Amino acid sequence: MKLARYFWLPFFAASLAACTTDTGPSAGEVALPVGAAPINVEQASQQFFRDNPGAKAAALLNAKGKGFEFYENGGAVFVSFRAISNLRIGTEVASMQDSEICLKEQDGWSGACMDIYALPDGGYFLEGTYGNGYTFAEAVTLAPIF
């Protein structure tokens, strides 16, 4: 009987699954770069503007110039990671707590919350979720906007 020949497959697959260990991130999680350390967003913001007098904003942008601009007055701009153009969406900071900063929903954009990590090479890493549930993870550099 041909069916009897394959009855053991589910048991074999279950046995293999029981023997595996998951050492990587779960679905929807991102593996942080080695040495990434969470920053205190509020303290880092205050220090940035002390260290850069005259700066009106702090830009956290990836190598393609996409990311976020955070203004001292609480305003923010999202420069879309996936847009071909430099699609810019103005918004405001909704909250800052520990390593997380959240941006308000604005004009059809769903907003976002992200954790910010300092990297050993002096760069930063953003790991976040848009209000619509999509996630992002980007290596960025910090620069003042005057």
Q: How would you portray this structure in words?
A:
The protein has one domain (34-145). It is 18% helix and 38% strand. It has 3 helices and 9 strands; from the N terminus they run H-H-E-H-E-E-E-E-E-E-E-E. It has helices at 2-5, 9-19, 41-51, and strands at 37-38, 57-61, 67-71, 75-79, 88-97, 100-103, 112-118, 124-130, 135-145. It has an 8-stranded antiparallel β-barrel with strand order 2-3-4-5-6-7-8-9. The longest helix is centred in the N-terminal third of the chain and has 11 residues, at 9-19. 14% of the residues are buried. The model is unreliable at 1-27 (pLDDT under 50).
In a few lines, what is going on in this structure?
The chain has helices at about 1-5, 10-20, 40-50; strands at about 35-40, 55-60, 65-70, 75-80, 90-95, 100-105, 110-120, 125-130, 135-145. By secondary structure, it is of the alpha+beta class. The relative contact order is 0.18.
